[in-house]
């Protein structure tokens, strides 16, 4: 019997992004901690994998206030799980003149 596992890795892009385009680098953020999303057994049976790139709005306290999918994995379930996990990310406070800033978080869902 072959046992497969999934690795979901949060890669924090430490650059802020322009909220209008949600893709163009605009500045720098400090370190961040993000939870590893839960991977359901049914997803493993279906061999769901892919990369999800998110834009996250970080407030002056370093909390995520909003998330947007920039690049989908192709699976809504993985995209939503990535958004739920990114909502709990904690950044070192970073603002642009006292305003909240956008940053990028990427989750790579890989079958091992």
- Assembly of the depicted chains: single chain
CATH architect. name: 2-Layer Sandwich
SSE pattern, N- to C-terminal: EEEHEEHEE
Name the overall outline: elongated
Give the total of beta strands. 7
Q: What level of helicity do the residues show?
A: 10-25%
- What is the radius of gyration computed over CA atoms, rounded to a whole number of angstroms? 15 Å
State the major sheet: 5 strands, antiparallel
What is the number of helical segments per DSSP (H or I, 4+ residues)? 2
Given as residue ranges, the uncertain stretches (5+ residues, pLDDT < 50) are: 1-8, 12-28
**What percentage of the residues does DSSP assign to strands (E)?**
35-45%
- Mean pLDDT over all positions: 75
**Alpha-beta content class:** mainly beta
The end-to-end span amounts to 14 Å
CATH class: Alpha Beta
Number of domains: 1
Q: Please name the CATH topology.
A: TolA/TonB C-terminal domain
Summarize the structure.
It is built from 2 helices and 7 strands, in the order βββαββαββ. It is mainly β. It has one domain: TonB (TolA/TonB C-terminal domain, 2-Layer Sandwich), CATH 3.30.2420.10.
Pick out its properties.
single chain, 112 residues, mainly beta, TolA/TonB C-terminal domain, 5-stranded antiparallel β-sheet, two-stranded antiparallel ribbon, 2 helices
């Amino acid at each position: 019997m072959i046992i497969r596992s999934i690795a979901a890795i949060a890669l924090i892009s430490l650059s802020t992004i322009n909220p209008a385009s949600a893709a163009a680098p605009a500045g720098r953020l400090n370190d961040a901690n993000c939870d590893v999303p839960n991977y359901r057994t049914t997803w493993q049976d279906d061999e769901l994998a892919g990369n999800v790139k998110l834009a996250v709005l970080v407030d002056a306290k370093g909390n995520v206030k909003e998330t947007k999918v920039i690049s989908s994995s192709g699976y809504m379930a993985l995209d939503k799980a990535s958004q739920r996990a990114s909502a709990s990310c904690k950044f070192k406070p970073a603002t642009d003149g006292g305003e909240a800033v956008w940053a990028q978080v990427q989750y790579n869902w890989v079958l091992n």
